[in-house]
Amino acid sequence: MHTGRVRLTEFWARMNTQFGSSYAESFARDHVLTGLGATVESALARGDDARVVWRAVCEEFDVPARER
């Protein structure tokens, strides 16, 4: 279980770095990612791996490879 928390913590750190803490929260709650057919919050709640969700964010927003 500890490993999952670390990955989720990393995920949110990357989201905050990429979008800023205020926008990251709003984005996670409101934007439906095309690749997942769900918002970030919904995807994580249904059990999608944080790495899979981060990759979907990166694809949709063309996050540079060095920041992935």
Features:
mainly alpha, 68 residues, single chain, 4 helices, 68% helix
Describe the protein's architecture and organization.
With 68 residues, the protein is mainly alpha-helical. The protein has one domain. Helices cover 68% and strands 6% of the residues. The protein has four helices and two strands. It has a two-stranded antiparallel sheet. Strand 1 and strand 2 form a beta hairpin. Helix 1 crosses helix 2. The longest helix has 18 residues. The protein is globular and about 25 Å long. The N and C termini lie far apart (23 Å). 12% of the residues are buried. The mean pLDDT is 90.
Question: What's the arrangement of secondary structure elements?
Answer:
Elements: H1 2-19, H2 21-30, E1 32-33, E2 38-39, H3 40-45, H4 50-61
Helix pairs in contact: 1-2
The strand line-up of the biggest sheet is 1-2
Number of domains: 1
What class, by secondary structure content?
mainly alpha
- Main pleated-sheet profile: 2 strands, antiparallel
The helix count comes to: 4
In round numbers, the mean pLDDT is 90
Rounded to the nearest angstrom, the radius of gyration is: 11 Å
Order of SSEs = HHEEHH
The end-to-end distance, rounded to whole angstroms, is 23 Å
Name the quaternary structure.
Answer: single chain
Shape: globular
Strand content: 5-15%
User: Any low-confidence stretches, pLDDT <50, length ≥5?
Assistant: none
Helix content: 55-70%
Number of strands: 2
